[in-house]
Amino acid sequence: MIKKSQLKYIKWSLLISLCALGVLLAFIMTSENSAVEWNGSKENTTSTREVNRIKKDSTRLKYTRQEDDPTVGGDRSHRDLIESKNIQPVENLIDEPAVLLNDPALIQAWGLKKTDVARAWSLTKGSRDVIVAVIDTGADIYHEDIADNLWINPGETGKDSKGRDKSKNGIDDDGNGFIDDVHGWNFVSDNSNLTDNHGHGTHIAGIIGAQAGNGVGIAGIAPETSLMILKYYDPKVPGTDNLRNTIRAIKYAVKMGAHIINYSGGGTEYSQEEHDAIAEAEQKGILFVAAAGNEKSNSDKFHYFPADYKLRNIISVTAIDPSTEVLSSSNYGIETVDIAAPGQDIISALPNNSYGKMTGTSQATAFVTGAAALVMAHKQTFKSTDIRKYILETGDAVNSLSGKTRYARQVNMFKALTILDKGLTVTGVMPVNTSGITDDFASDPSQKKKSQQNSVTTFRKQLQEALNKGSINPSKGK
Q1: Residue 22 three-state SS
Q2: pLDDT, tens only, 61-84
């Protein structure tokens, strides 16, 4: 016979067990809503996962997690951090109905709002006539968000004299020294195979120029530009000369008519040949946007090239987080780093129609390259030096960037487009001419070293007066 004291003990035990079971069930339900599915692959060391919910969109996106490659780093390769955290929707990312697109992952791209891309898109989304050379690890040229925005070499398309497809006839139809270079060239293996065996190049290409409004994935900063893919590095091909490949890629971009070169790599050694290749690009009016590097150092003391070459067509870019703080991994310097852009947990394309986040100055560089492509498309009479000036001087002034970059500014796409020469801008602001912008840039070899506090230009003062009149609200859209 069970005593009353024992019965009371049994009742309490059952009650506690039921409570524990309830907590367990609640945990299981929560876990299922954020479940991550990992699928191994013998051919690809990456794994895939699907995010169950994208704001008001039933499309299921495939996200790819890439393990840090131990071979990545060192001379002329990439040290950007590749993240795989749970991707959460960001509410009200883009609130301008006129430019709302149906690319489902836009709601997760915090950098777009940070740089006022939506209002910029109301003016231009770029131009196919603007060619951006992406010197990187190649790209997935069949990616759903990239394929339609690839540069096409007119000399390697169509039919040859024998009726064969020039793109794959094994002949150098345009006589430029490269066979079947339809969308660019692989300088690692010296062929037209642009396969991205790392993912970095695809990610960068996506940030710059992923297609917009196609109902899948993301949208690039300049979604109507043309992407020339130049592969200089491949983690699966050891022992290659990355610096040599870089130089050859720059020369190809110059030869084949690129307007902007995006380069995310670099190193601490000075190369006269690389310097001269970029100088040749400068003479051709080509803008060179370079990553400041992820060495956690002051570039004023420990130089990082090619970003630190004293050439007037180079923009050196460091990376910031959503709170506009320079990333701890990013290089900085008031004499060598020009501007900051979003670089933490940036979502973009990855090989095999995948999407994922990466962190680093490479991603920030792609933002600035996208800005340059927009300005170039919108103001076709601008020279590369004009575009450089406007991007650097019209960015948002941020206190946290003081002592970190030359101008203590983060890129602002909309203001770079609306502070234009000759007449009123679309906002009603009377701009100053580019001639009013002094040339005291970080990469100007003739400039004297001055403190950041004393380097306020006449243009900046006039620009600030215009902003203070309320014609442009710097905080709107952020």
Answers
A1: helix
A2: 333 333 333 233 345 655 444 433
User: pLDDT of 218-256, one tens digit each?
Assistant: 999 999 999 999 999 999 998 889 999 999 999 999 999
* pTM, entire model: 0.74
Q: Which residue has the higher pLDDT, 418 or 438?
A: 418
Written as one string, the DSSP assignment of 74-119 is STTS---EEE-PPP---TTS---GGG----GGGGG-HHHHHTTHHH
- Around 81, how many Cα atoms within 13 Å sit in the side-chain half-sphere? 17
User: Of these residues, 80, 103, 136, 145, which one is catalytic?
Assistant: 136
Decide: 267 and 243 in contact? Cβ < 8 Å.
Answer: yes
DSSP 174-226: T-SS-TT-SSEEETTTTBS----SSSHHHHHHHHHH---SSSSS---SSTTSE
Two structure tokens written together for 54 = 């994208």
Give catalytic status of residue 172 as yes or no: no
Q: For a pLDDT cut of 70, what percent of the chain falls above it?
A: 66
Residue with tokens 């060179």: 288
The partner residues of 63 in beta bridges, in order of sequence, read 49, 355
Instruction: For tokens 């796409």, name the residue.
Output: 413
Phi and psi, residue 188, nearest 5°: -80, -50
Burial of 450: CB neighbours in 10 Å, binned 0-12, 13-18, 19+:
exposed
Read off the amino acid at residue 464: Q
Section 447-458 average pLDDT: 39
Q: Which of 264, 299, 348, 362 is catalytic?
A: 362
- Choice among 78, 143, 200, 259 that is catalytic: 200
- Is 362 annotated as catalytic? yes
Q: Which amino acid is at 81?
A: L
Distance CA(187)–CA(204), nearest Å, equals: 18
Which residues, at least 6 apart from 143, have a Cβ–Cβ distance to it below 8 Å? Answer: 202, 206, 349, 351, 352, 353
- Residue 383, CA distances (Å) to 26, 255, 309 in order: 61, 18, 20
Q: Which domains does the chain have, with CATH numbers?
A: 81-468 (3.40.50.200)
384 is catalytic: no
